[in-house]
Amino acid sequence: MRILGIESSCDETAIALVTGKGDWLKVENSTVLSQIQTHQQYGGVVPEVAAREHLAAIFPMLERELPFDGQGIDAIAVTSGPGLAPALRVGVEVAKALAWSWGAPLIPVCHMEGHVYASWLPRSKRLFPFFPQRVPKFPALSLIVSGGHTELVMMHDHGKFERIGETLDDAAGEAFDKVAKMLGLQYPGGPNIARLAVGGNKTAFDFPRGMIERDDFTFSFSGIKTSVLYTLRKNEDKLDDAKFKSDIAASFQEAVVDVLTQKSMRAIEQYKPKSFILAGGVAANIELRNRIIKEGERRVTRVFVPPFSYSVDNAAMIAAAGYFRARNPKNFIEPVDLVADSNMDIV
Amino acid sequence: MFTSKSEQQTKDIANDFAKTLKGGEVIELVGDLGTGKTVFVRGIAQAFGSDARVKSPTFTIMNEYPVKAQQVKKVIHIDLYRFNDASQLSALELDEVMTADSVVCIEWPDIFGQSPFHPTHRIKIDHVDEETREIEIESLS
């Protein structure tokens, strides 16, 4: 089954073509607007917040990457939420129009569910890998961690999710971004903090690990943000000292990775999943990946971390989610009935 | 001018403030990182009986919390922290969002210089020390 995926929930415009057979997926095409711009410009990519560019970009992207008469496309999967309503609507309306004119089934997908399904996407570029790729087994537990989200979700089966915990205030990715700004680092904050942290002393500062003593799976990152701010204010004379800043970055990163890892491990111990999935843009953080893999694999059969290109916002993950949703015809929707839902939830 | 020594106190101040709102208000929240702007909005949403998860909209840009009060049906929570210039505002379709039955709260309204909004209220929150904030509520209409 060949699925066209469309994603435009906030910053990114993305389209993808994914073919599925049984439980195996193949990505024929995954195109993401900000990546195109990287090739065309010589500077860094500036995120187009609330991309008014969505509308301008989406048709040229479709025309360039797809058979425009819809030949060979069996279904269309589109992010219908959560996200910024005007941005979501671009993808949704385009998907509706294509579904209607091609007569193709239409599947609304939750963006967060897409992040989880990124772990079903092929990790290897080789067309004929020696062994078929392992995919998560149910029940699976996922930590979804990005700029806008931090939550722990149990996946009992395809499409059957249960939220077991989330952040009360800021997402982990946002904490990285704001601390990066405090340290005078450029966008993107997360990777730049990770880079600055190399060689820094991760115990130099004992930043608060929000909610870590609580038995539940709630997170909080607004406290650590303020703690770093006050530490920098109290040490204004050291702000030009590279070692000081590196220590701050390392200690901050350690505190965030600690909380995310400990809560995840506690959740594994309580819920006993067969697999653990690290999802979302912050999955790119090497410290986090390493800690989660090392401690996770002591406790579960397998830890899944998708490649970076599928961890950040993309449409291949949406197509993957759509592929599995398509197994149940109840998940299809008449184009005329589909409406973007900025508050859509994974459960 | 109010002094708050905790998140709960900030929410209590916001709760009292929310009781004066009738719908259609546009409220700017101005203050440094970590002063409690989002906590204040949480207090407003809770005052209207919402049990919505009020979280930082820095990455989502705009959150909408349905509420069940007499004149107010939703609290809209906007954060312009990631914006670079005013031309990006058109993407928010604010005209559709600022209605008579909504209360709109905007964090970082002045991120690119002068605020382009016509707020009915401005809330300024300043750090005094790690636990203490000073909250000033200004009515502009």
UniProtKB/TrEMBL annotation, chain A:
Which keywords describe this protein according to UniProt?
Answer: Acyltransferase, Cytoplasm, Iron, Metal-binding, Transferase, tRNA processing
Q: Report the EC code(s) recorded for this entry.
A: 2.3.1.234
Task: Enumerate the CDD domains for this protein.
Answer: ASKHA_NBD_TsaD_bac (cd24133)
* Positions bound to Fe cation: 111, 115, 313
Q: Which GO terms describe its molecular function?
A: iron ion binding; tRNA N(6)-L-threonylcarbamoyladenine synthase activity
Co-factor note (free text): Binds 1 Fe(2+) ion per subunit.
Question: Family assignment?
Answer: Belongs to the KAE1 / TsaD family.
Q: What is this protein called?
A: tRNA N6-adenosine threonylcarbamoyltransferase
What gene name does this entry carry? tsaD
TrEMBL record, chain B:
Q: Secretion signal: which residues?
A: none
> Which is a Pfam family this sequence falls into?
TsaE
Q: Name one GO molecular function term.
A: metal ion binding
Instruction: Provide a GO CC annotation, any one.
Output: cytoplasm
Please identify the protein, giving its name as recorded.
Answer: tRNA threonylcarbamoyladenosine biosynthesis protein TsaE
Q: Where is it predominantly found?
A: cytoplasm
Question: Which subcellular locations apply to this protein?
Answer: Cytoplasm
What organism, scientifically named, is this protein from? Candidatus Uhrbacteria bacterium GW2011_GWC1_41_20
